[in-house]
Fold each of these.
Amino acid sequence: MSASTRSVAFDTPAREKAADAFGMWVFVGSEAMLFGAVMLVFFVARVSYGPAFAAASKHLSLTLGTLNTAVLITSSFTMALAHFYSDARRWRAAVGTLAATALLGIAFLAIKGTEYAMEFHEGIAPVLGAPFTFDGPDPVHAAFFFGLYFTMTALHGLHLACGIIVVAGLLALWRGADASSRKRRVQAVGLYWHFVDVVWVFLFPVLYLINR
C-alpha cells in the first residue's frame, strides 16, 4: 500500500478512485432496479384502475410535495458545490456545503413527516392498521394507490435517511482523512445523493402531478 492509497489492493490513487466510483455505480444500479420494479407495479395498476388512482392522487398535498421537491433540488446543488470545493481543496467551504446538504435532507424528511401526519389524520393512510376512509369513487383501488404511495415514498425516505447518516459520518471523519480520501468520499456520497434526488424527481410528477 502506497502512502497515497487506503488499501493494499491499489497501487495508485487514480485506480483506487476508479474502483470506488465503479462500486458506487454498481450499488446505485441495483437500487435503481428496486425502485424501477415498484414503479412498474404502480404504472400497471394505474392503467387498470385509472379513475380511482386519479381521484386518490388529488388528495395528496401538492403544496408540500412541491416544497419538498424544491428542498431536494437545492440539496443536489449544495452537494455539487461540496464536490467542487473538495476538488479545489477549499475544505472549509466543502464542509459547510456538506452540512447544508444534510440539513436540507432533514428538512425534507420533516416536511414529509408532516404530510404523512396530515394523511393519517384525514384517514387516507391504509398502513400500520390505520383506519381508511375515502369518499371518492372505487375506495378499494384508491386504498391500493395510497398503499403504493406510502411504499414508494417511505422507501425513498429510508434511502434519504441513509444518505444523511453517511454525510454525517463523512463529516465526523473529516479531520482524520487526507486530501485524497476526502475527495473520493465526497464523490461517492455525492453520486448516491444525486441518485436519491433523481428518484424523487420521478416520484413527484407520477404521484402528485400526472392526474391534475
Amino acid sequence: MIWFLLTLTILYMMALVGVTFCFVYPFRTPIFLSPGFLGTAQEPTEFVDSGTGKLLRGWWVPHDDPKVVMICCHGFMMNRAELAPFASRFNDREMAFLFFDFPAHGSSQGRRSGFGFRERSAVLSAVQEARKKYPAAKIILAGSSMGAVASAFALGDDPTLADGLILDSCYDRLVDAINGWWLFLGGKKLRFFLYPIAWLGWPISGLNPFNVIVSRALKNVSVPTLVIHGEADSLAPLNHAKANYDALAGPKTLVTFAGRNHSEARWEEPDKYFESIDAFLNAYFS
C-alpha cells in the first residue's frame, strides 16, 4: 500500500512539473489573421526587446500623418493576430497601429513567458519604435489579458510612456490568475488537481507570482484608461477589474459585459465592445 501511494505521489509530482514547464514555456499558436487580410495596409517590422535582447516581429498598419498610434499587445499563448481587427475597425480614424509578438509567442524569439510581468520591456521597446516612426503622434497601449498586464506594468514604471491605456481582461494578482487559468480551461476539478503549480512555477519561471500585483503598478498611472472586463470571467474574476480600476489615478472608465468570460466580449458583443473604445477615443483623442 505504501509503495502504491508513493508511486501515485511521484506520478502526480511528475505531472505537475510537466504541466508547469508547458505553462512557463508555452506552445506557440500559429498566426491566424492579419490586418492585411482584413483589408488594411500592412508592413512587416521587427525590433529588439531591450529587456531580453530577443528579436520581436510584428506588423505596422501605417498612416501618412497619424494623430494616434495604437500599440496592440496580445494575450498569453496568443500572438499579434489576436487584436488584428482593431486596425480595420478604426480604419477611418487618423491612426496607425503596431502589432507585435511577445517573446516566446508568435514568430518572435524567446522560449520563456513572463506572464505580462517581464513583457513590460517589450512594450517599452514597441513604444520606442512608435516614437521613432511617428514622433508627433500620441501613444495608446491596448492590451488583452497578458498584454494588458504588460502594458500596465510598463506604464506604471514610466507614467510618461503613453498617453492612453486600454485594459481588456487584465488580471490583478498573478497567483490568482494562474489558478483561474486552470478553472478557465477545465473547471474546478482541473483547478484542484493543478493548484500546486502556483508554487512550482516560482523556481521554474524565476518569478514569484505572489509579488506580481497589477493594481500596485496602476497607482502610478494617471493617463485616461478604459477597463473592459467580462462579468463571468473565470480566469480573472470581476473583482480583479475593480481593483485595477480603483487603483488608477487619472480619468477612467469601466465597461463590463454580463455573462462574458475571459477576453470573450470582443467576439461575442463586438458592437458594444468597439463602441466603448470609440467613446474612449472620442473623449480623449478626438
